[in-house]
């Protein structure tokens, strides 16, 4: 008897008919979790920033917690941007694979073991620094601008 309960979780997506879609949904969960954690950390940072700067409650403890929240957000955004690069075995390749024809998708997977060397070369030559830095700045500035707009509406 097969379990047909709806609460089986995201990991059971592989057991469904569309394996590519299941892999893409599972792969997208990691970067999405990083984005949510970065947003939460920047929300804490923005609240503490308002308390420290605009309302004059600046203490070294609040500044320290605000700095930690900012660094935590930046690290999560780094992980997210790195993982969405569409090079196998990174999550971005699995998400991209959902949109590729089967032949191209399986060809990409066939070279997955060699792509780790490509990732190391790109990392050691500094090429990934520009890609990750640009992506982190884009998401960081977007979240901060969104939070600043929300805070300005409230205050």
Task: Describe this structure as you would to a colleague.
The chain has 155 residues and is an all-alpha fold. It has helices at residues 19-54, 60-83, 91-99, 102-110, 112-124, 127-154. Helix 1 crosses helix 3 and helix 1 packs across helix 6 (127-154).
Chain-wise SSE layout:
Blueprint: H1 19-54, H2 60-83, H3 91-99, H4 102-110, H5 112-124, H6 127-154
Shape: elongated
User: Could you estimate the helical fraction of the residues in percent?
Assistant: over 70%
Structure classification: mainly alpha
Helix tally equals 6
Care to count the β-strands? 0
Tell me the fraction of residues in β-strands, as a range.
Answer: under 5%
Calculate the terminal CA-CA distance, rounded to whole Å: 58 Å
Write the element-wise H/E pattern from the N-terminal end onward.
HHHHHH
The residue-averaged pLDDT reads 85
Question: Strand count, sense and closure of the main sheet?
Answer: none
What does the radius of gyration come to? 20 Å
Low-confidence parts, pLDDT < 50 over ≥5 residues? none
Keywords, separated by commas or semicolons:
single chain; 155 residues; mainly alpha; 77% helix; elongated
Quickly describe the structure.
This protein has 155 residues and is mainly α.
């Amino acid at each position: 008897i097969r379990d047909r309960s709806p609460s089986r979780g995201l990991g059971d997506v592989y057991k469904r008919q569309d394996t590519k879609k299941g892999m893409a949904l599972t792969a997208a969960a990691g970067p999405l979790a990083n984005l949510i954690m970065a947003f939460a950390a920047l929300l804490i940072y923005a609240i503490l920033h308002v308390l420290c700067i605009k309302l004059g409650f600046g203490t070294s403890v609040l500044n320290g917690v605000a700095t930690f929240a900012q660094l935590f957000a930046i690290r999560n955004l780094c992980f997210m941007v790195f993982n969405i690069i569409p090079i196998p075995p990174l999550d971005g390749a699995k998400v991209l694979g959902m949109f590729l024809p089967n032949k191209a998708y399986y060809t990409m997977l066939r070279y997955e073991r060699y792509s780790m060397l490509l990732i190391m070369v790109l990392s050691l030559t500094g090429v990934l620094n520009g890609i990750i830095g640009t992506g982190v700045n884009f998401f960081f500035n977007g979240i901060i601008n969104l939070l600043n707009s929300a805070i300005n509406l409230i205050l």
